[in-house]
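Title: Comparing notes on inverse folding

I've been comparing how different people in this forum approach sequence design from structure. To keep things fair, I'm posting one structure and asking everyone to reply with a full sequence. Here's the target:
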């Protein structure tokens, strides 16, 4: 039996997440428009990134038991998916209920730089875990997570519950 490629696995996960996002209390989105499709894509990518960072961060902070194989896979998944993030913001568009701020598009170069910072940090984390395992990567987790907040503080409206 042929093992599925990382790209096909990620595509499958994104498809499932996109379908589930439509019924999860997310804003009603017209998925027949390019803007709606971009929104569903970015929400799916964000869901994966958040799940992987929760696992990575929990293990790094010793809040959940360390499983090196799960940690390594989560780090590699984070690195792979983080590069997809800007695609979810093209074309410009915010459905009602989106927390994306219009400054994303009016300051696109800075937004792209912040997305690249996440991707570079995630790849650095993946490189560290590849060469030295959990011990080498643990100290990089907090700075990697910080790249998420760097973008969210600037380009995401607060949640109404925050």
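Reply #1:
Here's my take.
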């Amino acid at each position: 039996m042929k093992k599925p490629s990382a790209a096909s696995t990620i595509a499958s996960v994104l498809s499932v997440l996109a379908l589930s996002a439509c019924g999860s209390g997310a804003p009603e989105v017209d998925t027949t428009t390019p803007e709606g499709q971009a929104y569903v894509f970015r929400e799916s990518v964000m869901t994966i990134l958040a799940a992987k960072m929760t696992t990575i961060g929990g293990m790094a902070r010793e809040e959940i038991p360390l499983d090196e194989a799960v940690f390594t896979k989560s780090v590699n998944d984070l690195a792979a998916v983080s590069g997809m993030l800007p695609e979810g913001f093209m074309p410009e568009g915010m459905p009602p209920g989106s927390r994306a701020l219009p400054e994303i598009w009016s300051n696109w170069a800075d937004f792209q730089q912040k997305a690249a910072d996440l991707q570079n940090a995630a790849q650095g984390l993946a490189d560290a875990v590849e060469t030295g395992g959990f011990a080498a990567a643990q100290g990089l987790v907090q700075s990697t997570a910080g790249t998420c907040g760097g973008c969210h503080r600037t380009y995401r409206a607060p949640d109404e519950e925050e």
